[in-house]
Write a structure and sequence with these properties.
- Helix 1 packs across helix 6, helix 2 packs parallel to helix 8 and helix 3 crosses helix 4.
- The longest helix is centred in the first third of the chain and has 25 residues.
- This protein has one domain: 3-Layer(aba) Sandwich (Rossmann fold), CATH 3.40.50.1820.
- By secondary structure, the chain is an alpha/beta fold.
- The strands form two sheets. Strands 1-2-6-3-7-8-9-10 form an eight-stranded mixed sheet, sandwiched between helices. Strands 4-5 form a two-stranded antiparallel ribbon.
- The N and C termini lie far apart (69 Å).
- Helices cover 35% and strands 18% of the residues.
């Protein structure tokens, strides 16, 4: 009889863990915004607009500095002061537009590294780009919804494009994307769901896009053990009850076939939370001119996000060429 009680307790614990993790997938703990562009000397305004399905989206419109070229820039940096070029910056789950603070994860502490996405914003701003950086739904200060790692968030991307088009001072601008993880997925999916809204998009930097099922499988296996993998269908069951799409549907692979503009896909080669085969499938399906930049140095997934803004020459070279 005692073994039955132990088994029952273990089953209850398993169900509880699966339920908690499923909630963290569809309603991630909101990261508080603890920095603004002003902390980096950038001029910005707070903006708010609806996603195309009505969810309230908040962000910052960072205005370019007035540059006098030539500047003392590295050979790969642009000097785009005065040009009408705008980059939309989107973030991973469960970040906000400023990044990720490991001390503010709520009751479940899974991640160790802080990420400062404002360094990417600053690198773009320093060479004269406008930057619209937004909180995707369920993140930061934006409205609520079901997080679907791009499958719902693409409407936040198209809402941002509608907002740009609605402003006389922005409507004429060429547009690029600096899109991270969930934001990269959302950008890719938007090209398929609403191609007419992306006519002014010239290029996109896609940092570590990922299929949800691949992430969950690798994350559970590396955080716990491979023996924990049976928890995935239970997690999906609870997530589906909460309104989530099927995990297998939360993937940018097929949607990537609609991406006709130039792309730079950045991926950490030693990222334990993905499978490079998944990255390769996404890259292979991108239909436009493209480059896959594999980061050879061993580093965690979050450190790759920091690398983009910390050593921005590759990013700036890409935007200088295509935007």
């Amino acid at each position: 009889m005692i073994y039955l009680y132990i088994l029952l307790v273990l089953v209850i614990i398993l169900l509880l863990i699966a339920y908690i993790f499923s909630l963290s997938m569809i309603h991630p703990y909101r990261q508080k915004i603890t920095k603004t562009p002003a902390d980096y000397g950038m001029n910005f305004e707070d903006v708010e607009f609806p996603a195309t399905d009505g969810v309230k989206i908040r962000g910052w419109l960072v205005k370019p500095k007035k540059l006098t070229c030539p500047q003392r820039l590295s050979q790969t940096q642009a000097c785009d002061g005065g040009r009408d070029k705008l980059i939309i910056q989107t973030h991973p789950m469960p970040f906000n537009r400023a990044g990720f603070n490991a001390k503010n994860q709520g009751p479940i502490n899974l991640f160790k590294e802080d990420v400062d996405l404002l360094k990417t914003t600053r690198a773009l701003n320093n060479v004269g780009y406008w930057v619209l950086t937004i909180d995707l739904r369920n993140c930061g200060e934006s409205g609520s919804g079901i997080t679907a790692v791009g499958l719902n968030e693409w409407q936040d991307v198209t809402g941002a494009l509608d907002y740009i088009k609605s402003r006389k001072d922005l409507a004429h601008m060429d547009i690029g994307f600096a899109s991270f993880c969930m934001g990269a997925n959302a950008t890719i999916i938007a090209t398929s769901k609403a191609p007419d809204k992306l006519k002014n998009v010239k290029c996109a930097m896609l940092v570590q896009p990922i299929s949800m099922l691949v992430f969950l499988r690798t994350f559970v296996k590396n955080t716990f053990t491979a023996l924990s993998l049976p928890i995935l269908p239970i997690m999906e069951f609870f997530a589906r009850l909460g309104g989530s799409p099927k995990f297998a549907e939360e993937s940018p692979i097929e949607y990537a076939k609609s991406v006709k503009f130039p792309t730079l896909l950045i991926q950490g080669k030693f990222d334990k939370w993905t499978e490079l085969a998944d990255t390769q499938k996404i890259f292979d399906n991108l239909a436009g001119e493209k480059e896959l930049n594999l980061i050879e140095k061993p580093m965690p997934r979050f450190e790759v996000y920091n690398l983009v803004g910390g050593k921005p020459d590759k990013m700036l070279e890409f935007f200088r060429k295509y935007l």
